[in-house]
Design brief:
Length: 755
């Protein structure tokens, strides 16, 4: 049934002075319609009335702690070991929606019971919980603006005329006073470049302090349709494959081993926790899916043949991230003995489309309007992109190396938008999306989120263009939740919350000895979700080992994270001396491979499944309705994690946790009888908050109603399958869209109203 609650005001950052309900977005970013009828009915109960601080756009350094993880243990077989880890904690890159890092504020303690004199020397063992959002937001100043001009307005000439007019206003003095040192002489608006496929143009301003006044002045100009900040980006039957880690118990990351209490050989005496390195792939039934398609593992020779004869069976998947390690042996079927990019290149039977690799980081370009097309510039110098790409498309069955990727038929297209420091911008992401579409990528993985909760008009345009061109954008939902404040997980992040994106939440390990699979403690959720996938978390196990109870380690908490590829050379994430190297300092992330959590690593599980489904069915950009076909198959095939008898949607897990085997068989896996509709309401070019939406199934009179979110989006959930008439009401006006089909077990995306 539909959720009903009192509507609230939209979220706005209290850290950036220019943002307010009156001065945000296109002319006015959010128009709010007064509630009518039963006051404020809608699907908004998940949003508390509060101000939500944004997360910084790079791996944010904790300002409140450098947590000391002290672990000193005594053991009959070991000398006394004192292991002190001093960690600089970080909130993840991009949130990279992603790296949910340990938080001192939420460190559970494992206390030794004083049953044995030997244990008097034991200190408390501490395991940091995974939390990303209880950090004070720290922002790089925004010094660029995206402007959508009316047709036939020359962008460079507009910058000149605007600057001349602006310098005659009272705001000039404030602008000069606020300008950063060395920038006082800059024009109020300097043209940088235009996006080739839209009327959006990028401009530079003298300083971040000038942002508010400049946006106000731009929105007052008749030539301007929309103006918004260039937001920063913040950084989931054949025999089993013979990859080294497939089905192998992960003992090296047991907490008793990481702490120094035990070695791998002695760990079973003190810790009975058990999981495989590849638990995420096993959870989503990867082997069952591979039995359905392709029924065998690729070889380099086969991939070369498919590339020449049936390229739709090797779908192009853009990974918009930090780049990839072109030399990683797991992106080849040979082990890459020459250490270059030859064997990993799809042209030679590898996994990476080297020729399509690109970098879109304007700050690193000599000419931002004409980015250097050299594929080598998309090399990963941070680590995140390689790890994401490994989950999607690492080569399987390649001479006992590493891990397989769920969607190994894919061709990985690395598109670098984040630099080695974890910095990236919205405009670069948009350029990357447009490039991926032009390069014929069927899928785009965005394990990242904007450093804002404001609705991003220009990014929404880019994602809509992708959908209309036959490309599906799959996005990490974000890592804002904490155990202390789970409501933060209801924050709507972008692009995951856009109408034409598939948002992905993260789940935890649910194997033997645990309480079962659950939403990860850090994961965002809510009505912007599509599905859930394994992302890892700190997980509690019942400890049945001989010494567990005596040592006070029952229950025991473990890092059960996603084991994936890491660059073969040192990068930011694998450097324990870097602020963002917290998992390296814990011994979880190093060279070649690493264990990391986050919706960033749930997201590529879904992208890998999408690639596998597309490969099986020969789906390409040219396939009519390709994005919707793939999205609905994934949602219908998802496994039930809630208790709904109708197999419906819930805001914790969306339509469920993905099941690759069920998806490839096109099953309605939950025997669902209900579906949903996702759409948006605009007033002119502005999203419309609190517009009333009514849905009535053809041949019935029962009405399902709700109101739009602050970003104008609505999500009608758990409607009986059938054909509907959808009505939107705003400002005493009504618009109706008919023949909207609701399919059982999934959402229909793209019901758009424009007043």
């Amino acid at each position: 049934m539909l959720q009903r609650a009192v509507l609230i005001q939209p979220f706005f950052s209290n850290r950036i002075a220019h943002r307010s309900t009156a001065r945000n977005g296109c002319k006015s970013a959010v128009v709010s319609v007064s509630a009518t009828g039963s006051a404020g009915e809608g699907l908004m109960s998940q949003f508390p009335t509060r101000t939500v601080p944004t997360v910084r756009s790079r791996s944010a350094i904790s300002t409140f702690s450098r947590a000391t993880l002290s672990r000193t243990f005594s053991h009959a077989r070991l000398n006394r070991i004192a292991l002190n880890h001093t960690l600089t904690l970080a909130a993840g890159l991009l949130a990279l929606s992603c790296l949910a890092l340990p938080s001192q504020a939420q460190i559970p303690q494992l206390r030794a019971k004083n049953r044995n004199p030997l244990l008097n020397r034991r200190m408390q063992a501490r395991i940091p919980e995974i939390a990303a959002a209880n950090l004070l937001p720290v922002h790089r100043p925004i010094e660029k603006i995206l402007v959508k001009l009316r047709p036939n307005v020359a962008p460079a000439a507009f910058a000149h005329s605007f600057s001349v007019a602006f310098l005659k206003t009272p705001a000039r003095a404030a602008l000069e006073m606020d300008a950063a040192p060395g920038k006082a002489g800059l024009l109020p608006l300097s043209y940088i470049r235009s996006q080739q496929t839209s009327n959006w143009h990028l401009y530079r301003i003298p300083s971040g302090e000038a942002l508010g006044a400049t946006l106000d002045a731009l929105r007052a100009r008749p030539e301007v349709l929309c103006a918004e900040p260039d937001y920063h980006v913040k950084v989931e039957s054949i025999a089993p494959p013979n990859d080294y880690y497939w089905g192998v118990q992960d003992q090296e990351h047991l907490i008793v081993v990481l702490s120094g209490l035990d070695t791998i050989n002695t760990a079973a005496d003190d810790d009975s926790s058990y999981w495989h390195y590849t638990w995420g792939l096993e959870t989503v039934n990867a082997l069952g899916a591979w039995n359905t398609y392709p029924g065998h593992y690729h070889t380099a020779a086969e991939r070369k043949t498919l590339l020449a004869t049936s390229p739709s069976h090797l779908p192009l998947v853009a990974v918009i991230d930090t780049g990839v390690d072109f030399t990683h042996p797991d992106f080849s079927y040979t082990g890459n003995p020459k250490k270059g990019h030859t064997d990993t290149n799809v042209a030679n039977g590898g996994q990476i489309s080297y020729s399509l690799g690109r970098r879109f980081i304007a700050s690193l370009e000599v000419d931002p309007a004409n980015p250097d097309p050299n594929p080598a510039l998309s090399k990963d110098d941070y680590g995140h992109g390689t790890s994401v790409a490994g989950v999607i498309g690492a080569a399987p069955n390649n001479s006992k190396r590493g891990i397989p990727g769920l969607g190994f038929p894919a061709q990985i297209v690395p598109i670098k938008v984040i630099d080695a420091n974890g910095n990236g911008d919205d405009s670069d992401v948009q350029d990357a999306i447009d490039y991926a579409v032009k390069a014929k990528c069927l899928l785009i993985n965005t394990s990242l989120a904007l450093d804002t909760t404001d609705f991003p008009y220009s990014l929404a345009d880019a994602v809509t263009r992708a959908w209309n061109a036959g490309t599906l954008v799959i996005s990490a939902a974000g890592n804002d939740a904490t155990t202390a404040n789970p409501a933060l997980g209801l924050t709507r992040r972008y692009p995951a919350s856009l109408v034409y994106a598939l948002g992905v939440a993260a789940s935890s390990y649910g194997g033997d000895g645990t309480a079962g699979e659950a939403l990860a403690s850090y994961s965002n959720h809510g009505y912007s979700l599509g599905v859930t996938a394994p992302g890892g978390d700190v997980t509690t196990f019942a400890n049945t080992s001989p010494n567990g109870a005596d040592f006070g380690l029952d229950p025991i908490q473990e890092y059960v994270l996603i084991w994936t590829l890491a660059p073969t050379y040192k990068v930011t994430l694998s450097d324990p001396n870097q602020p963002d190297g917290a998992y390296a300092a814990l011994g979880l992330y190093g060279l070649n491979y690493g264990a990391v959590p986050g919706t960033s690593f749930a997201c590529p599980h879904v992208t890998g499944l999408a690639a596998l489904y597309a490969a099986k069915n020969g789906i390409s950009q040219a396939t009519p309705g390709a994005p919707g076909k793939i999205l609905q198959a994934i949602e219908r095939g998802a496994a039930k994690l809630n208790t709904r008898a109708d197999g419906g949607f819930d805001p914790t897990f969306g339509w469920g946790r993905i099941d690759a085997s069920a998806t490839l068989k096109d099953l309605n896996a939950r025997n669902s009888t209900v579906g949903g509709i996702i759409g948006q309401v605009y007033y002119g070019a502005t999203v419309l908050h609190n517009a009333k939406i009514t849905a009535v199934r053809v041949g019935t009179t029962k009405a399902y109603t709700l109101s739009t979110y602050p970003d104008g989006v609505f999500h009608l959930t758990n409607l009986p399958a059938g054909t509907y008439s959808i009505k939107a009401q705003a400002f005493k006006s009504t618009k109706t869209i008919t023949n909207v089909v609701v399919t059982a077990g999934c959402d229909n995306h793209g019901v758009i109203f424009k007043f």
